[in-house]
Design goal:
Number of helices: 14
Radius of gyration: 21 Å
Oligomer: single chain
Bound molecules: pyridoxal-5'-phosphate
Cofactor: pyridoxal 5'-phosphate
InterPro entries: Cys/Met-Metab_PyrdxlP-dep_enz, Cys_met_metab_PP, PyrdxlP-dep_Trfase, PyrdxlP-dep_Trfase_major, PyrdxlP-dep_Trfase_small
Largest sheet: 7 strands, mixed
Keywords: Lyase, Pyridoxal phosphate
Order of helices and strands: HHEHEHEHEHEHEEHHHEHEHEEHEH
Organism: Zeaxanthinibacter enoshimensis
Strand order of the largest sheet: 1-7-6-5-4-2-3
GO molecular function: cystathionine gamma-lyase activity; cystathionine gamma-synthase activity; pyridoxal phosphate binding
């Protein structure tokens, strides 16, 4: 049985992996080296310089390709470095359509960096397929999707976006950071590129900053590999090792994140002091049908607004939490709480933020894999 035929819960452990050639090490060694001895100029064993390639990074890249059902994986020094490489496929004048409820750092990279290089970005609620199509013109080259969205948990129909991309001959890229390949496989749904902030669920232990791209197509992989090497934002051997170790437990962690996410979402929904809870597993979530179709489960990210909707009320809650740590980021084994308006989404102007629902009182939870009863008790004491 080749690695390709394995089921997902085995691919996380074995996908693209084989014992190290030197001594049979089962875990890939951390090849902490910048360069490799050559017997004669060009006479190397597959690696010449670690920006261009490193065996530990190559092991991670093979794992990434395997778990996303792609053929080629590329690991970067951060999620944003991975997005940066995709944007460098574009030329001045090219247009990109993306969601209006986007990770703040992606928005900042698009607006504050790439607009100055002549790219044009349109931000629309991509749950509305017709609204996306309205923004497409002869200069459009790329659809950039993030689903579920951060922090509003909107769900975008990847197959519908793939149909638009095919009709208008566009590239479709999906930021799969929130869902992970445990929950959804964008390449199987018609995307050309999957992107990850592996800093989050893939690494899973809040101990690295790493980014990833996975594609099926060889020509696209070659272009991205060229950019990865030419621009140089690669992921180091130690971080590659840690991310690979994280991926080996992705399926068990995700299963628990989903179970705890449901318990926390349902607790908040029933709480009299909570105004609104955003979680795609609720049947009355506006995109629940799409979520149920394209995702295996609904994940561990939950956002909510306390009643009275004040900035101060939200701050008071996040300051009182003890098991949940007030911190940026998500996807680690430990539960985190964030206040998007002042933290992850502060780089988006207030009017833009509020248009997509990121009000000053919104709180975002990354529900970890602790005992759910402790998480609920912590919320109980903080909300009162
Ligand atoms: C964190 C995050 C990013 C950026 O990744 P970094 O690893 O922090 O550079 C991009 N997209 C989403 C959805 C994220 O959560």
């Amino acid at each position: 049985m080749s690695n390709k035929d394995l089921r997902f819960n085995s691919k996380t452990i074995h996908g693209g992996q084989s014992p190290d050639k030197a001594y049979g090490a089962v875990m890939p060694p951390i090849y902490q080296t910048s360069t490799y001895a050559q017997s004669t100029p060009g006479g190397h064993q597959g690696f010449e310089y670690s920006r261009s390639g490193n065996p530990t990074r190559a092991a991670l890249e093979a794992s990434l390709a395997s778990i996303e059902n792609g053929n080629y994986g590329l690991a970067f020094g951060s999620g944003l470095a991975a997005i940066d490489a995709v944007m460098k496929l574009m030329k001045p004048g090219d247009e990109i359509v993306s969601t209006n409820d986007l990770y703040g750092g992606s928005y900042r990279l698009f607006k504050k960096v790439f607009e100055d290089f002549g790219l044009k970005f349109h931000f629309v609620g991509m749950q509305d397929v017709a609204a996306v199509e309205e923004k497409i013109n002869e200069n459009t080259r790329l659809l950039w999707v993030e689903t579920p969205t951060n922090p509003m948990m909107n769900v975008i129909d990847i197959e519908a976006m793939a149909a638009l991309a095919e009709k208008h001959k566009l590239l479709l890229a999906v930021d799969n950071t929130f869902a992970t390949p445990y929950l959804q496989l964008p390449l199987d749904l018609g995307a050309d590129i999957v992107m990850h902030s592996a800093t989050k669920y893939l690494g899973g232990h809040s101990d690295v900053v790493v980014g990833a791209l996975v594609v099926k197509d060889k020509e696209l992989a070659d272009k991205l590999y060229f950019l990865q090497n030419a621009s140089g934002a690669v992921c180091g051997p130690m971080d590659s090792f840690l991310t690979l170790r994280g991926i080996k437990t992705l399926h068990v962690r995700m299963q628990r994140h989903c179970e705890n996410g449901r318990i926390v979402a349902e607790y908040l929904k029933a709480h009299p002091a909570i105004e609104k809870v955003y979680w795609p597993g609720f049947e009355d979530h506006p995109n629940h049908d799409v979520a149920a179709r394209q995702m295996r489960d609904f994940g561990g990210m939950v956002s909510f607004v306390p009643k009275g909707s004040s900035y101060d009320a939200a701050i008071a809650i996040v300051e009182k939490l003890k098991v949940f740590t007030l911190a940026e980021s998500l996807g680690g084994v430990e539960s985190l709480a964030g206040h998007p308006a002042s933290m992850t989404h502060a780089s988006i102007p207030k009017e833009e933020r509020e248009k997509s629902g990121v009000v000053d009182s919104l709180i975002r939870l990354s529900v970890g894999i602790e005992d759910a009863a402790d998480l609920v008790a912590d919320l109980e004491q903080a909300i009162g």
